[in-house]
Amino acid sequence: MAYREVKERLRGSIAPVVTPFDEEGNVDLTTLTSLIDWHIKSGTHGISVTGTSGEPSSLTLDERKQVMETAKKAVAGRVPFVPGTGSTNHAETIELTKFAQEIGADAAMVIVPYYNRPSQQALYKHFKAVAESVDIPIIVYNIPGRTAVNLEVKTLARLVEDCPNIIGVKESNKDFEHVNRVLWHCGRDFLLFSGIELLCYPMLAIGGAGSISATANVVPQKVAELHDAWFDGDVKRAQDLHFELMELNDVLFIETNPGPVKAALGMLGKITPKLRLPLDLPSEEHQEQIRRTLVKYGLLTEAAQQPAK
């Protein structure tokens, strides 16, 4: 299978959409559909679900499949669809990745298994088995702050050499030397996506393909515009947007993602601000800080709703 066409389409802001719940904590598929439609109309270049922002570890296997299938139908081919299919369980990861292929996803994003802390050789064997179980492209997701293990560049390069459908990586690694070496060792045409908000623009500057940024949940148009400006050669505009978004980026990570993002989306009237335990909304003090920041950005009025509880 040739992956060139997919690689050409997977560019820009791929939004890692949150999983909305209703007041009782049930997955709200109707609101998910509305969110995806809002994203695409706002200029988002691609849609992902059940990644870190989508609380996958709080969903059952069946719920993850429901979210993926609903999202695929909502996207309706308008932009690329890249669901997160990884977990801490190897067999479940393969099952979900095969399901992504069955429903027609453009690619699957597979996280480094969290909690287990595998060795580099074990990571190689895990990702190789997942990649060989499907024909669709794979984007590896490296987020050492969540998984407690870093997928080393040499391990990734080995996987890229041995698995032709591993076409990219989402790097949520703050080590900018590391991400430079990813492109050096994996090839300049390898798709590098930033998962660190303050590195979205810098990664574009070294040849990155785009970002998969939680901030896109709140301001999809602005995050997409940053990428559009860069790809159009308007470096100054891209730089301006990078710095313009910095304060919002910071406040959306004032507590563990996606708590602040869901609080913000609740204030904007986009979702019921609900998470499943052990995650929760930010403290009232932090929610007030989020609210003030949304007001500052012109997203809310001063009289907007008070923090949720």
Detailed description of the structure:
By secondary structure, the protein is of the alpha/beta class. It has one domain: Alpha-Beta Barrel (TIM Barrel), CATH 3.20.20. 46% of the residues lie in helices and 9% in strands. The chain is built from 14 helices and 7 strands. Helix 5 packs parallel to helix 7, helix 10 packs antiparallel against helix 11 and helix 13 crosses helix 14. The chain is globular, with a radius of gyration of 18 Å. The N and C termini lie far apart (50 Å). The mean pLDDT is 96.
Query: CATH fold name, please?
Result: TIM Barrel
Please state the CA-atom Rg, rounded to the nearest Å. Answer: 18 Å
Specify the structural class.
alpha/beta
CATH architecture: Alpha-Beta Barrel
Assess the beta-strand content as a share of residues. 5-15%
Instruction: Name the helix and strand elements from N-terminus to C-terminus, one letter apiece.
Output: HEHEHHEHEHHEHEHEHHHHH
Q: For the residues shown, what is the average pLDDT?
A: 96
Q: Give the low-pLDDT segments.
A: none
- Oligomerization category of the chains in this entry: single chain
Q: Helical stretch count?
A: 14
Number of strands: 7
For the record, the CATH class is Alpha Beta
Q: Please indicate the count of domains.
A: 1
Q: How many angstroms does the end-to-end distance come to?
A: 50 Å
**CATH H level: which superfamily?**
Aldolase class I
Q: Can you list the strand order of the major beta sheet? A: 2-1-7-6-5-4-3
**Helical residue percent?**
40-55%
Shape, principal axes of CA atoms: globular
